Amino acid sequence: MTEEKNPQVVMETSMGTVKIELFKDKAPISVRNFLSYVKDAYYDGTIFHRVIKNFMIQGGGLDENMLPKKTKFAIKNEAGNGLKNLRGTLAMARTSMVDSATSQFFVNVVDNAFLDHAGKTPDRFGYAVFGQVIEGMDIVDAIRDVKTGNKNGHQDVPVEPVTINSIRLVE
User: Fold this and answer.
1) Hey, CA dihedral for 29, 32, 37, 40, is it positive or negative?
2) What are the residue ranges of helices labelled H in the chain?
3) d(Cα 135, Cα 26) in Å, to the nearest integer?
4) How far is 94 from 74, CA to CA, in rounded Å?
5) How confident is the model over 58-75, as pLDDT tens digits?
6) Is this model's pTM higher than 0.85 or not?
7) pLDDT digits (tens, 9 = 90+) for 153-169
8) Separation between Cα atoms, residue 60 and residue 48, nearest integer Å
9) Section 20-39 average pLDDT
10) Residue 4 has what pLDDT?
């Protein structure tokens, strides 16, 4: 019996290609959710709308005009899965509500231990890691270095849009 390999996706951005492995075994809900958006080509044309050089790059929900795309239902937070918010990992973005993640995700560009699951209360619940960049971390680093400013009430927005052209499952 061969062990089922984790799914991988290729994210084509306006700055280059990033390949990501998804941890289906550890974060089945998050991965299934993310792949449902991938299958619908939902991410095509969305931007990295929040880029903080020594923290993370976040995208997957807004277009170039900072308008949110319609999302599916919020999912259960899997932050208690034992995975850490280390440099190069992908995690689900959410509001202050624990189970509020939909389409948005972020890539940690440094180790962000303070985002890890530390308890059951909302302030300590953490952010669910569900994937890892396996190729193209240089592209992620290039994105984290872009100049940012304020746009339409949002902070840390790249001055020149960084677009997610597509995210596709590697067959």
Assistant:
1) negative
2) 28-39, 137-144
3) 21
4) 9
5) 999 999 999 999 999 999
6) yes
7) 999 999 999 999 999 99
8) 7
9) 98
10) 76
Instruction: State the chain's mean pLDDT as an integer.
Output: 96
Q: Which of 28, 4, 5, 8 is nearest to 167 (CA)?
A: 8
Backbone CA torsion sign across 133, 136, 138, 142: negative
Beta carbons within 10 angstroms of residue 151's beta carbon: 17
The single residue listed with the structure tokens 């304020």 is: 150
DSSP, residue by residue, 73-115: --B---GGGS----TTEEEE---SSTT-B-S-EEEESS--GGG
Closest CA to 105 of 119, 117, 89: 89
* Amino acid found at 89: T
List the structure tokens of 171. Answer: 């067959």
Residue 11 has pLDDT above 70, yes or no: yes
Exposure string over 69-96, b if 16+ CB within 10 A, otherwise e:
beeeebbebbbebebbbebbbbbbbbee
